[in-house]
Amino acid sequence: MTEKGRIWLTIGVLVVIGIAILLIAQPWQQPQPTRPSEVTQQPTPPPTETQPPPTPPTTEPTTPPASPIEAVTPGEEPTPPSEQPPVQPVVTTAALVNEVVFVQEPDQAKVIDMLTAGQLDLYAFGIRDPELARKVKASPVLGYETSYGGSVELTLNPVGPTFKNGVLNPFSVPAIREALNWLVDRKTIAEEIYGGLAVPRYLPINTVFPDYARLAHVAKELEAYYAPNPDKARAVITEEMQKLGAELRNNKWYYNNQPVKLIFLIRTEDKRREVGDYIANLLEDLGFTVDRQYKTAAEASPIWISSDPADGKWHLYTAGWVSTVVNRDLASNFDFYYTPRGRPDPLWQAYTPDPEFDEISNRLGRRDYKTVEERQELMEKALRLALKDSVRVWLADTIDVWARRAEVRLASDLAGGMSGSALWPLTL
What we know:
Elements: H1 3-25, H2 108-116, H3 130-138, E1 142-156, H4 174-183, H5 186-193, E2 198-200, H6 210-214, H7 216-225, H8 230-243, E3 247-249, E4 252-255, E5 258-259, E6 261-267, H9 272-285, E7 289-295, H10 297-306, E8 316-322, H11 333-338, H12 346-349, H13 355-365, H14 372-389, E9 392-405, H15 424-427
Parallel strand pairs: 6-7, 6-8
Antiparallel strand pairs: 1-8, 1-9, 2-9, 3-4, 4-5
């Protein structure tokens, strides 16, 4: 090998040795996986079924949604938003309701004037006076809603034949209670007293609810059978009163030489005052002496609900009920209105329904049936037995008008109206 070749060989060996030394001193770095940033957001829980929020009316203000912001993990750069046209906020002329002020005004005529003048925005009590209802409907500055869940009936004291004080109670006899269905003219009550803001009602099921439609064939049959028949009512009552030992002298009933006096609790706040007077006149024509005691709800409730019916503080009462929802299943009405299972109050505990009626009411109340046909059969029997029992004589289903300013919107239930609706505070 020449001298020049040996030199180049030496240089090559030195280069190789140098590279080896460098590789030993600084080894290749293996890429380490990047540790994910710590997530501060809690994991999203599994969804649970909820009721969707009510859709607000179109006139209600809508809060525009905030601009969407992408969630950024700490340490990352935010991703620029895509190029999209900006969302325009919804503009309305209405304002959110931040405060609701309640006032009490018992005079409905005055309320209508206050609404018309703009001093009130709405009246959360149903109007049943036909003249006031017509005034509301004719006003250009007022609006209204209509509900059909109210009802009026005659509640009877069933204890007897005599009270603790020895006073006779004719309504302890089921046949006398039943005869009242022939005595009253429900059409007169609906059209003349309520001025068309009511419809006749004979049965313990609302006339505008689904069960009435399902049982219409039986309902119409019973309504025809119990149509007004004063002569039949008088004949039945006369026969039963004589069985009780009462005597009719000069068209006046006496028991133990004392006039048979009926204590009639008559509500005063609405048309039930006129209903009470109408029925009192019919009873007086039959020979009863009627003590008309006009009372508000606060005055009447301690007597007819809380007192012992055997004490004889009352014989009959103008009752009213409100259904706050359109109920498709009224099977429990019989158990509620006619048996001790309905309520723990003394009046309910005094009920002694016929054993067959009691059993059917109990089964319907517990939904103790296997088929629709079986339920239908039980309901038909219960309707017939309810009129035989008649501790309640149903008179009318009322139609309520709920007045408001024309620009005010809120939810109103078809049965319960404004005050009976659970949605009004969410939709006002």
